[in-house]
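Q: What structure does this chain adopt?
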Amino acid sequence: MFVLAIIAFIVAFFAIMAGVLSNEKDAPYAAGGVALFTGAVFLVISCLSTVPTRNVGIVTQWGKPTGRTTGAGLQWTAPWQDVDDWDASGQTYAHLGDQCVWVTVKGPRDMCVPVQIEWAALPENAPANWAAFREADGMDRFGTWVARRVDPQMTAALMETFAGYDPFASIDPKTGDVAVPNLNETYRKPLSDAIAQSLGHDITVKSIAFGKPGYDKATTDALGEYSSKALAGRNLDLDKANAVKRKAVTDIDASVNQTARCLSIAEKNNKEPGLCMSGGTGVTLTHSTN
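A:
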């Protein structure tokens, strides 16, 4: 619009000059007046820009950012400046279900983490990011920035956060059951901190939510085998403990039976039961004929 305004002012200038230099005044002055009005309209329009709600306006001059940003709504700028939109509304890094993010965990093993991260771009660094990325693959500058910077950094943060995760620690040694880990309780803050370290100047994280993780086939089979061994070990420990108890009961029963037999013999033969009561074993009382 600014270029059109300049052209209209040039036309108005020449039309008025033609009127001054000619005997016919009305037509050149009329044309000059129309061109002058048109140029003024174009000039006003070139100073106005509209920024959508929840967006940041990037003020540019001759295709380069000035470093100035605006809020949403109707904005005034110099006629030779433009305002480009930068989305500051809520965005989502969503990888749920089959679209979960594969990370390498302790072992090394492969785990698929379902996660949804809600975030928003910060306006402070918007001009620099606008200048650093160009439209590509059918995406505007903002979309290119998200695809080439934000999403890869979030994936890298996930990889870093879960690098030390041990899937075998979720197996209960008492039952052999594989517990479902509570990723939301344990890993929200570490992931948020990792994202802030790489993207803290560009975005703010609003929320993080994890789903139930999955594993590759090799890890799933290994977990099942480890769980079976843990359960078998627990059963072996129980069997050993029960065997010790059974032996103790058998020994007590044998001692009681021997004592009872000894007392019976003593009573039958009218003998003193002292040896029986002393806990002696192998005691035999014989009948005396004297």
